[in-house]
Amino acid sequence: MLGAVAAVQSAASVREVQLAWLRSVPEVVSAAGYGFYLLEPSSLRPLDVAANVPDRFLQRYEDEGRQDDPVLQEAVARGGPIDSSRLGPPCRWQHSAVCAVLEEAGYHHSLEAPIIVDGVVEGTLNMARRKEDPPFSLEDLEALGLVAEQVAAAVTRARRYDQVSERTVLLADALDAAAQPVVVTTVDGELIFQNRMALRAVPGSHQTYLERAHPVLHEALEQLRQGHQRVVTAQEANTTTPVAGSRDERPVADLGGAVAVKAVRLRSRQDAVVSFVSFRPAGAPGLPDAALPLSPREREIADLVSQGLTTRQIAELSFVSENTVKQHLKRIFAKLQVSSRAELVQAVWRAAADHRDRPADLDAAT
User: Fold this and answer.
1) DSSP state of 165
2) Distances (CA, A) of 255 to 22, 47, 219, 229, 307
3) In this model, does residue 279 exceed pLDDT 90?
4) Of 258, 262, 277, 275, nearest in space to 190 by CA
């Protein structure tokens, strides 16, 4: 008995509960045939069955026996196990359609116990013995009734697990459909999930988006570990490289592309973090006029920030003071509802990418 209970309680999914019961139930009650039905509660229509009997017999039972199965009817009415020898007058069993179905398959005695979840019959445990075997005893009924209670508890728990698994698959599919690389890690950097976009190769590079973003991602995670924020952003440092044949310098973002990461610590699990990766390709065009709700001057400054330029560099290129650039940035932050240059970089790159991906006829219509 204890082995059967341990087997069903250790099963993760409902199907595993069924199979665990089939493997372990001979330790509890001996029989020639075993079956585990999951039923639609209102109609008792079978939804699934696991059994060690031939499929042909199962089909005959559905076609000819279920509608006239007094053992099933009595088990459901009682809310507990019953066998064919305890139905009252012997003729009730012997003249039933299911008795003939069992006899044809070489069986004679029938025992069934309902699986009751929250007061509703959601399945049955079925057993059959041959005619030369003894009828089921009261001890058999009691043992199967106890196992049925454990099976009901296991089914309840396994259904919750199945629901969580289904939601996990649904969430993974939804994240895979996103056009932005999304990565889920522990706060210490252990990878939990990466969507398809994160696994794609960066244009013009042998690296994937996740590999390209790896240093910036770990910088963001370090900020989360050291502080108390729930949301942080990080981007590649604004290093500059001389342009060939010139004294000018250009940011790395213009040469090999640049990465920004927004990392969010999850409320439901404090050691888990979801990170959104943005990438600006090398030589990407400026921010289109209609991409963000900014004035032309604000759009120009936002685009220069997204290229990795400092406030001083932007002031020099725009022929304004650094204080004027700072005032523009305050207004830009307010309009776009961002709180840092890294968040602004992501907003600009995302808007530019969305604008590039829009169909030409949609642009024409607007």
Assistant:
1) H
2) 64, 60, 22, 32, 10
3) no
4) 275
Distance separating alpha carbons of residues 365 and 30, to the nearest angstrom:
75
3-state SS assignment for residue 319: coil
Whether 205 contacts 211, CB under 8 Å = no
Token output for 136:
């089921």
Dihedral angle sign, alpha carbons of residues 23, 28, 34, 40: negative
Distance of CA 17 to the CA centre of its chain: 21
**Cβ 231 vs Cβ 309: under 8 Å:** no
- Would you state the structure tokens that stand for residue 102, as one six-digit string? 């069992």
| Residue that wins the pLDDT comparison between 119 and 351 | 119
Q: Scanning the structure block, which residue is given the tokens 């002031």?
A: 315
Instruction: Please tell me which residue, 359 or 233, carries the higher pLDDT value.
Output: 233
Percent of the chain with pLDDT over 90: 42
Residue 353: per-residue pLDDT:
67
pLDDT value of residue 121: 92
Q: What is the pTM of this model?
A: 0.53
CA distance 306 to 337: 16
| Mean pLDDT, rounded, for 223-248 | 68
Tokens describing residue 138: 């009261």
Convert the pLDDT of each residue in 334-350 to its tens digit: 988 888 887 888 788 77
Question: Going by DSSP bridges, is the β-strand pair 45-51/33-40 parallel, antiparallel, or unpaired?
Answer: antiparallel
| Residue type at position 94 | Q
> What is the Cα–Cα distance from 231 to 221, expressed in whole angstroms?
10
Give the residue carrying structure tokens 């900014």. Answer: 294
Of the two residues 247 and 349, the one the predictor is more confident about is 349
Contacts of 149 (CB under 8 A, 6+ apart): none
pLDDT given at position 292: 78
Label residue 272 exposed, middle or buried (CB < 10 Å: 0-12, 13-18, 19+): middle
Whether pLDDT at 208 is above 50: yes
The Cα 47–Cα 14 span in angstroms is 12
Angstrom distance (rounded) from CA 66 to CA 124: 12
Residue with tokens 């889920």: 184
Contact 69, 98 (CB under 8 A): yes
